[in-house]
Amino acid sequence: MRRLTFLLRPSWVILAAVVVAFAYLCFTILAPWQLGKNGRTSHRNQLIADSVSAAPVDVTTLLDKPATEDTEWRRVSATGNYIPGSTVLERLQRLEDKPAYGVLAAFRLDDGRTLLVDRGLVAAADGVQLPPIAEPPSGPQRIEARLRKSEGIIPGKDPMTRDGYRQVYSIDTGQVSTVLGTPLTTVPTGGHPGYLQLTDKQPGAFTPQPLPQLDAGPYLSYGLQWIAFGVMAPLGLGYFVYAELRERRKERATATPPPAPAPTEPPEPVKDSHAPTEPPSPTPISTTPPTPHQQTTAERLADRYGNARR
What backbone torsions phi and psi does residue 25 show, to the nearest 5 degrees? Predict the structure, then answer.
């Protein structure tokens, strides 16, 4: 356990806390977020695929018997007439990648209930100007549409009146009902209020909103990637701990080398009493020549001039 005390250092504690927090986010937030989007997209695609081959049903059957199942994108039919002067425009739309407006209107059923109908898209003139909007046909009409869920209200984007038309930023049955001053009956779509979106070539229809692509998108792979990251992060921390322990073992092995073995003396030879005794080796004579005598100054003068006391 002493070898693991380095894990109590602040740097290792912070690293471990970051890894644990990251893994927790991967498993509880990031992966479920992407997998949930994948589930919702797959469910929507299945509803659209089922509605393509299904015959339209009378919308009143859904109004009279609210279903708890998700009925968005289901094809329905309705008979009645458009309410004159009920046009409302939805701003900031796109048609073939150009600015456009969505056109909404109120449709009164034969039984007196009123539904919100999305008539489709009209392109903005010159990319910015509002084009003339034709009123829907008068008199009794039979229309076919798809059920759609209300988009909700965008915070900070209040309805306005511009160029002679009431305009909103999203399709919300409650908000449009307030703008028109007319009670609107919402079509139940799995517990959410809904409206009708006209299909192509219907009375009063403009260019219909295109159906979403039946593609689940990359959400499943993203979700699996977050799960993989959540698994890899603790494994990476474990690898770093193992690498640190390995380096510490190497350092200890280098700092304390093993003790050298004690030298062993060769055994003394056994003396034989009968063997002849060898004479002692003579003392070697030094062959180093003697160091010459260095004369002093007085001696050199005496040799040259003689001794003064003679």
Answer: -65, -40
